[in-house]
Amino acid sequence: MRKPLLLIAIFLGSINVFQAQKLDIIPKPVQIEQQGEVFRIPASVRLILDKKLQHSADYIRGEFLKSTGITPNVFIGASQEKKSIVFLVDDTMELPEEGYRLSVKKEGVLVKGKSANGLLNGFQTLLQICSAKAIEKGTIPFVTIEDYPRFEWRGMMLDVSRQFFDKETVKNYIDWLSAHKMNVFHWHLTDDNGWRIEIKSMPDLTLKGAWRGPGEVIPPAYGSGNQRYGGFYTQEDIKEVVAHALARGISIMPEIEIPGHSRAVIGAYPELGCVITHQTKSVQGEVDNVWCVGREENYQVLDGIIKEFTELFPFEYIHVAGDEVNRATWEQCPECQAVMQDEGFTDTFQLQNYFFRRVEKIVEKYNRKAAGWNEIIKGGQLSPKTQIFAWQGVDYGIESAKKGYSTIMIPGQYTYFDMAQSASERGHRWAAIIDTERVYGFEPIPENDLSLDEQKLIKGVQGALWSEYLDRPERFMEYQSYPRISALSEVAWSKKEDKDWDDFYSRLTNSHLQRLSDMGIAFRDFPPTAI
Ligand code: TNX
Q1: Chain segment 476-493, per-residue pLDDT in tens
Q2: Which residues form the Beta-hexosaminidase bacterial type N-terminal domain (predicted)?
Q3: What does residue 379 show for φ and ψ, rounded to 5 degrees?
């Protein structure tokens, strides 16, 4: 008697699984149930947005039209009218902050979340459902979804110093992140090869420091030939991009590269560097690229720069770098040596720690927290609020968490998208050759090496696109980013136990690559479209 029932159950179960896969959502939601029927979107559909989502109204209207071909009538406020699509904040819901529930029924579509960003995540899922290959345009299958992220920090960094990307390109980049439910854009705004943000109190940072090549203070670099090359964002541009990101649920963490990687700054304001006779080179072969940390006036200058950053960026973190500092410079600098003697330091990592303790104080004075690359945990304690970005490898993230710091895993070996994707492709190779499957296989929590409390300090995961090798038309940046960021988004969002490369690959190739194409992304195809 029981066997047939069991068989029917297995049969129905497999239909359900089959249907769920047809929606091809990336990153994969936590729970999804389909009912088989569809909601037909009326031509005059009403989209009713909670007032907490007002800042996203234009964005939502535009994206809905692109995905469905239907222009919605958008209303702000609360209403449960039939056949409409309703987005409602309910802060009493038992769901993580950025989670959402989505239901599509005969009566209409309801997206509920605890926060505006939760609703935006639900909106991205809705857009993906509407654009899945198996779905008839203008319809939405009946479905119930409950979904929330695994990690609260799901970031991506773009280096706009080595190559400059204009503000429209950056805005597009942010749109694509948002489509993958990523929530932090880490904007690497300064480096040896160009300072890209207008600072009113120090105009030469951009007048001089944003340009390289003949006649400029920064030598030509990374394939830009002998042409004058450069560009920067005005403060108005920055405000525009920050608002654009906010409407898409993305926070922007700006980065100021200090005290190393500062050739552009020191070219523009030589007095900020150390006065030394024997130059040594940084890892990337630069000279004169380190701030003098022994000169008192430099801390006032930094205070002024950080102040302007905090006026432009509302996010809680300011990234103050600290990677690959050519500390040998400080060994020859009398002012740095004087500080070392006064403080009783025996090595330059202690001097680096002294510098960052002072920078943290400035950042915290403006009610923000500092973030930095993993080298800054050397040489002494930091403020417990400071957040560490473990780029040199998972072991560095383990060390950071063991020391009690909030840690973001961004290991070069898995999430550096400037690395080549196969042996024959362009890109850096120092960390690894990284194809999409390798990114997908990355596990950010090294369970065997950390206690449960330490594991909680792994706040999230991030990718990085350094741009030394992006010296080709802009679209090369897209080729390096996608679909590797699609894989990263699933590492960051979906449950560990739900990860399955074959299943991801089928969702990717079945529907998602087409979505990337529709967004205008010149992604790397399978097999690669060679470069
Ligand atoms: C190391 S990652 C750097 C960057 C380079 C990158 C190239 C990090 C914090 N520093 O300056 O662009 O390698 O892969």
Answers
A1: 999 999 999 999 999 999
A2: 23-148
A3: 85, 0
